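Notes continue from the previous slide.

Worked example: a multi-chain complex. Inputs as given:
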Amino acid sequence: MLNYIIRRLVMLIPVLLGVSILTFSMIHMIPGDPARSMLGTKANEKALTELREELGLNDPYLVQYGKFLGDLAQGDLGTSFKTKAPVSDELESRLPATIELTLFAMAIAMVVGVLAGVISAVKQYSWFDNLSMTGALFGVSIPIFWLGLMMIWLFSVKLGWLPASGRLSSGVEIEAITHFYLLDSILTLNWSGFADVFKHLLMPGVALATIPMAIIALMTRSSMLEVMNQDYIRTADAKGLATYLVVFQHALKNAFLPVLTVIGLQFGFLLGGAVLTETIFSWPGIGRFVLQSILARDYPVVQSTILVIAVIFVFVNLITDILYKYIDPRISLD
Amino acid sequence: MSAQMDLEQNSKVKAKKPKKESSLWGDALSRILKSKTSFIGLMIILLLIVVAVLAPVLAPYHPIDDGSIIDRYQPPSAEHWLGTDQLGRDILSRIIYGARISIKIGVIAVGIAFVVGTLLGGIAGYIGRWVDNVIMRIIDIMMAFPSILLAIAMVAILGKSLTNAMIAVGIVGVPQFARIVRSTVLSIKEKEFVESARASGVKNGRILMRHVLPNCMAPIIVQATLSVGTAILDAAGLSFLGLGAQGATPEWGVMLSDGRAALQTSPWVITFPGLAIFLVVLGFNLFGDGLRDALDPRLKQ
Amino acid sequence: MKKHLFRTLLALSLLVVLALAACSGESTSSENPDDSSDQSNEEDNSSNNNDGNSDENASEGSGKDTLVFGRGADSKQLDPSKVTDGESIYVTQQIYDQLVTYEQDSTEVKPALATDWKTSDDGTVWTFTLREGVKFHDGTSFEAEDVVYNFERWTKSKDYIYYGYMFGGHEDGLIEKVEAVDEYTVKFTLKEPNAPFIQTLAMPPFGIASPDAIEKHGENYFKNPVGTGPFKFESWTRGDRIELSRNDDFWGQKAGVKNLTFRVIPDNGARFMELQSGSIDLMLGLNPQDLEPAENADGLQVFRRPSMNVGYMAMNTDKEGPLADRKVRQAINLAVDKKELIKLFEGLGKSAKNPMPPSLWGYNDDIDPYGYDVEKAKTLLAEAGYGDGIDITLYTMPNPRPYMPQPKVTAQAIQQMLKEANINVEIVENDWETHLEVTQNGEHDMALLGWTGDNGDPDNFLYVLLDKDNAKVGSAGNIAFYKNDEVHDLLKSAQSEMEQSKRAEKYKKAQEIIHKDAPWLPIAHTTPPLVGKDNIKGYVPHATGSEKLHTITFE
């Protein structure tokens, strides 16, 4: 197992290097001049030339890329062109904001998705099965940015139940320890803060969870059905164990494997999908931040942030693979 | 970005045995027509096509030229069934013309993913060795990217337009096709009929195009159908972010993004284009699902 | 199985349709008897909000001491000398003071850190007497050496954008030297007389920072700002909020609230909702559509920022083709119905006829606007040899600007109108940075753009935007590439003239020539609205785009 993990980690290096090369070349292919975006209407020729020199934009690409890698090796993510602040500063609260939203959405998707899938499989063809499967079909087809807007219209504009934007109400203080507000509020036993954070998470969380929830429900149902039709489950059934025990001990464990893969893949999807969700719910995370940085050609921010996202994504995949092995030792990891 | 990739990757679409084509597709068609859900999907798709073709006949107004600022933000009424937008244009007419754009997105974006993905996957799977390694590592790198960011970056490079958004969505879809085709090709290339073709001296390229790829078609077509829905969603998302269709184009994502400012005062402006996207995507998903079930021999029992 | 699924599907779709019918029905009815039901809608909203309020703010009661200000983007840096964006300036204005500052309701200059100043006869030496007993937030006291330190710091790098921009360079700029004569006297020596100098010193970028803090924090100073202003910096959560607290040692009127929070809510509509639900107290950047609801809503009040801007459509006079012909440009001015166009500003703006706002001295009100006359436009076009119509491009940007709340729609409306005069417009939309770049490069035929004044001097509009000095391809402020020597001479001589009335005459003359040559279609001067809760007192928005918020109290 340890060997396997080490081997996988080593294999990540070329992939991440590839990601960094791809990001670097793509962002430099974007037409336009970062110096000009920084100076805006106040640009004049002299200022532009000087600024380009200062930002190192006149260096050959290889030198620029080398510098980026070199800094990275020393743990330096670079400095934003636009704000002149270190990228790590910019990410300090934004990254946890996005991850918190993503985990929250993942939790909703898993709990609801797996539950709905299991019940649907056990009670196949029941009204619940039909309802949840129809819901799932609707779920994978809905544009989440539209769903988000409609939710805001209903729950914020019309009913006034939930806040339309942000992570926290003004005036609510949460001591930022990890920048995961839900966690921070628990750590500081700040229950009113916890409630406020939760309320803010609810709509963007549900919007973001919609598609993975639907997919997990569909997957869970179909793999449960497949497993339940296999001989050993029938045998267990025949032995007279209580039905729920059969279901949960045998079937669920086996059915969980494909579901796990989906969850791993969907985590990456969520990180990406956060761009739209964050835009709609004014969520101060990295999604919107990267989007704006790409458009402003803020090279250091884009390069480092995308790499950070890719690192998270590949590690989540690695973890799911390891879990895979843990749940079912018969699976060969090669 | 793609919701669907997992749907079919994990389920029943796996390597297919070469079959007699006619009976496979014939069976499939009759099975699709029997399934109500995929029938609905098919109907939605047909409706979309009819609306797109007959747009000038069906639309009560011109989607761009008709309307004046004075009539802006009119709620649904007898003259404007779905209301008017910020420039007083008829929303129904714009949605009807938008159907054309949606079809274009579906065809072009999925076409790109289909062609490029199939070729890459086919070559990787068939030739194997280092070629396989190189191609699949590139695919890995692409998949380590959150795909929407990849698409955004691509649009930023190519310039903001609907066409470029379609290209970006297409390229983002390449890895899924490549992976499916590769695994299918891997299982087919050792089969007898391929071996015999090779033994009789047929060139590799010809074997790939004439014998191997045609036999991978079933899973690819299912993937393509499901991808249309995703592509429409993604392109609408890009347009919503201001990266896709521009200006007065009656594209549904643009309509949503334009109407967002009036969410409080005129909610109908965003309600209907969103509903249109939802319906069309649902149509392709239902049909694709049905197609997959119909083509999957294991469900025959 | 499929049958069941089908039935459920049908039922669900039916539900959706019903729900939609219900909601569209509701909106129809709410629109018919225009005002009354709108009103009731609002009441619905606000009563909901009041419920929310009583829950959330019960503990605070009337002793509310935190003012939450909502805006569309985060600050870049809290060092005003290095930024050009309004979002940074808005916050730094609370933390820093300048030597002089603008009156609360005009761009006249009044004492701030300097209590008095005089100019030498030749206009090149300015001597300032400083206020005594002022302390920076870090406890160090403010003296003449600190002023020298700040001004010297700004000459050291190109990072101090506004310094270079306003004073024409860093080491070789307008300011020759700055000396501390004694503890509380500071002397500026200029290269040449410069009339707008004192106006410029009042600009937010020239806020005086604590030298101790700059030395102490080094590269991190931008997020640890220390000034002498009415509020002290507390914390900054990127992309989300900046928190300030009252400076109890402030030299002037102490702030009326204890805490001041700036929150980022990018979407205008969402921000307005937050205001309605009571989680913010004051906001800028209102969607035009929301203005009416805001004005009618109980518990809200609308503030107007006096206009110091202009939104315009520049016509590229430099490009070969129809627009090089003055008649065509005049025809375009005639073919646009500004009265209709200004409706898109939904009451946020007044239509413009000159390139500078009426709030500035030197504004020429005698100019007779072109008016709307399609027939005359067609005649002019025919005279110019374009009777068959022309095809031209109109470049625009996607995002709202203070001087143009809906650029996209404005472009489309202009397109609709020009069609009447047989002018076919193709709209080219680029993101903001690209838009600036391509228009500065002169790729456009016509382009939408605008300008917000820096220091309240006409020079800052006319010279920057329409002088031939600024019509350089690649870095043009003058994107009409309008080059008129007569205008150039007028503007240049106005720069070194120290007497305001004489300057005003020159600017008025220049506006006449510009009007005739029609390099622009001047569109509007906006008075950007700010919306606040009605318990806010003492708030006066300033024409320059930012103001100190210490005068605000809660009722």
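Summary box: Residues 9-62 of chain C have pLDDT under 50 and may be disordered. Chain C touches chain A through 61 residues (CB under 8 Å).
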